[in-house]
Structures are given as C-alpha cells and as structure tokens.
Amino acid sequence: MEKLNRDTITKLALDSMMHLSEAEINEIETDSAVYLKQIEYLKAVDIEGVESLSYPFEAETMWLRSDDTSYALAQETLFKNVPLTEGDYVEIVKVLK
Amino acid sequence: MNNDYNAIVSLVDHTPLETGVLKGWDVALKDNFNMVDTLTTASCKLLENHVSIYSAEAVDRIMASGARIVAKASMDELGMGGSNRSALTGPVLNPHDITRISGGSSGGSAALVASKAVRLALGSDTGDSVRRPAAFCGIVGVKPTYGRISRYGVIPYASSLDHVAYFTNNVADAAQTLEVLAGRDDRDMTSSNAVVDAYASLLDMDLKGKKIGIFTSVHEHMDPAVITPSLDTVMSLLVDAGAVLIEKKMDLNLLRAILPTYSVISNAESVANHANLDGVRFGVQKAGDSLEDIMLETRGSGFSSRIKKRFIYGAYALDDVNQDEIFNRAKRVRRVLVDAYASLFADVDIVIAMASGMVAPKVDDAEASSMADSWMIGESHMILQNFSGYPSMTIPVGTHETMPLGINITTKPFDEKTLFAFGHQLEMLLGGTQ
What we know:
The complex is a heterodimer. Helices cover about 35% and strands about 5% of the residues of chain A. Chain A starts with 5 loop residues before the first helix and ends in a 7-residue tail after the last strand. The radius of gyration of chain B is 21 Å and the shape is globular. Classes of the chains: A mainly alpha, B alpha/beta.
C-alpha cells in the first residue's frame, strides 16, 4: 500500500482531474491519519476464501432488451445545459493547434 | 410555507393532477432529484446553474399520484455527509431546537416534514442519510429494499449503496407512499420486479408470540443515559403485547469494520460516479486553454474541500497499487458483514435497534470523526442495511432532554409488509401517530 503523502495526493488529484490548493493538500495529509487507521480495522476481519460483494443482491435484474429505441432525449433538450455549442457539437477549446 | 429552518433551496411551481391516491399531499424533493425545468444543484457549486432536462422516475410517480410538489430541499453536498452542515446554503436547523442540526444528508427534507410544512419529503439514503435525520427530527424515515424504488434521475453518490428513501409523520403515510414509488423501471437496471403489496391496507399485526430481535451489540456502544429509558419502554410494551424478545449479537471486529468498509466503498464509487461533473456538457464551466485545463479548473473550484478529500480517498483506494489491499478487501469484508447480519434473522423476521445513541448535535459542534466505538458502531450501525439492501425504517420513540430519539426497524429483503405492519403496531403502543 503506497503512502498517502503530498506527492501521492498531488498525483491522485491530477488523476481525478481537479486542482487542489496547498491548504487542501495539507488538510488531506493531516486528516488522512484517521482514515488510514480506520482502514486498518478491515484487516481484523477474516476474508480467506470470501468473494467480493459488489451489490446487495446477486439476483439478475439486467438482460438484453430488444434492439429498439426505447428512450432518448432530444438534442435540443440535451443542449439546454451545455455551456457552449456549435451546430450539432458541444464546443470546447481547440485541441489541435 | 416558511423557511425558518433554512430547509428550502428553491420553490417549485407545480400544478397537481385532479385525482390520485396522494391528492392533497404537499411534497418536497431533496435537491438531488431531477424534476424537469427546476433547479437541481445537489448542493454543489459546480451544479448551481443546473436546470433539470428530465424528471426522476420517483418524481414522475409522485406527480402521477396527484400530489403537489412544492419545494426542493437542502442537503449535504452531493449527499456526502451526515450533518447537512456542508450544504451550499448553510446548515439546516432542527424544528425541535433551532440551535441544533436536522442531520444529513437529507436534512432539508427531514426538517420540512418535522415542521409539518409538507406531508412527504423524498430523500436518498446511502449510509443512513434518511433514517438518522429521522431520529434527530422525531419523524418516520424509510429506506426500502435495494431495488424497490428506481434511482433513475437521482444524482448518485455511491451506486451499490444508494437508495431512494423518504420521510413522513406516521407509518400509515409511509406505507401509502411506497405503494406509489415502488416498482420496476427499465431505466434503472438495479430496480426489482418483486411484487409490490398494498402496504397501507396491511398494517394489522398480532404481536402475540412474535419473535423480535434486539440488536444489543450496538446498544453496548451508545450512552445508556440517553437510550435506556426509551429502549426499556419499547421492550416493555412489546413484552406486554405478547412479543418474544431475542438478543442479537455481532462480533466486535465486524462491528468496527462497518464504517471503514463504507468509507472505502462509498468514496471509491463516488469519485467514479462524479467523473462526469466536468463543466463541459452541463454545470458551471471555468475557462482554460485546453480541455484538461477546463476540467481541472472547473472541478477544482466546483467542489468543496470536503468533497475533494473524499475523492482523493476514493482514488487512493482504487489506485492500481492499493486496489487489492483496500477496495477489493472492503468488498470482501462487505460480504462477511452482510452474511453476519443476515444470520441475525435466522429465527426472527424483525430486528430493532436504537437509531442513534445521541440527540441532534448543536450547529456549532465539531464534525464527528473519531475512532471511538460510540461513533464507529453506535452511530454507524445502520449502514449495515445499505450494505445488505434490507428494508429499514426509523420511527420516533421518545425524547431525551426534550429532543427526539428514534428506533430503527429492519426486516428481510422485500418484506416491507412486515416492516410497516410492525412499525404501525409499535407506533400505536407508543401512543399513536402525530
């Protein structure tokens, strides 16, 4: 398990696509002590031979539907909250220069 | 409708249908429920300009029932908190004492029902976010079985734990509400096809000979001065009605693993779920010279420091180097916890426990976060029903120094019929509905 220090926090913030201030990095580094101590409690539970549980129930609730359009939002509706659009496209800054 | 408790974040102008089973009911929505043409911010700065372009399935069902939706209610940012102190609009005050909080994360919904401003308020419950505020505010808080109610259109927190849940002032209203909200929705692939009963007409239950589990292991980590009078009253009333009480225990190491398991899984799922909050397709976009800059600036300024901390913890647990030791371990511990909790129901259909070992904290109290068993067990045990998906409801059970306390009732999966019938009987024994 890697250390949750300044370098790791900075790397994870970039991975998560968000800026952190110096104060935020310091706060996370300090507060993480309790979080890491709590994680230690997981080691007191015997998980030998135990499979992961990802959802409460493992009964099937998903299946392939027929290949028909069943539900879709109109482009005009979808564009209502988009900060910038151009024609049929969501506009962002130029990525090719 | 007044807003003395800072519970409302926006008013909704909705003309209800002429008829329906909830005709005449005023309803509030936690601000993470999309309702077309209303502001839906989830108390997050990044979404403060977000107007819903569609409605959640639960909202459609409320509207089809004849109820009138009147307001969007305050919440902790993105549902990630237990106090409502992190709301963009400030803390929500408790209608029983405005120097105290309502609890969270569905704190605005709780205050609006407790103050009788509305008859029903929807919330979401990822780790007791309806059932604990219900205890603090002296009202009924229901989290039905995982999959009972579609989450389509509700801004998520952690998908394997998120439930649509709600508040009412009595169990009969709670039973009626589930009839409206429950049922399969193909737009939420975790929603269930299980039969929905006529809960409101099935509230009778003979308690004579009924075996009730008492989850004593969690009571051992609560302040006896706070809980004992109310708990003793409940147990005496049940015994007098002919019920048989059976002590239920869980291993201490398992109980101490509840909160860490929740922290790891919920933070990991939340950082993945909220990767779409980038300001490109919706939300408050910040300027940048590249797509990467836009996202870094938008997310950096759009989330509070609290949320960013949780995202860092989530990313840490999911990082390749740590994933097996932290995230995958937590998912395996989750199965052990769920199996242990299920075993409590081997000889009973109902298990009860005090919802919390404390009354609502003061607004200015420090945020709780500690290694004490009173916090990690006494105040965290209801997360077991999020891990397991079991239906669970808190009802008022008395007071401590004038502030309300709640008792939590849990039944087997998809047995809300028993949940409501038992809750109604206990409510009657305690003196009836409000």
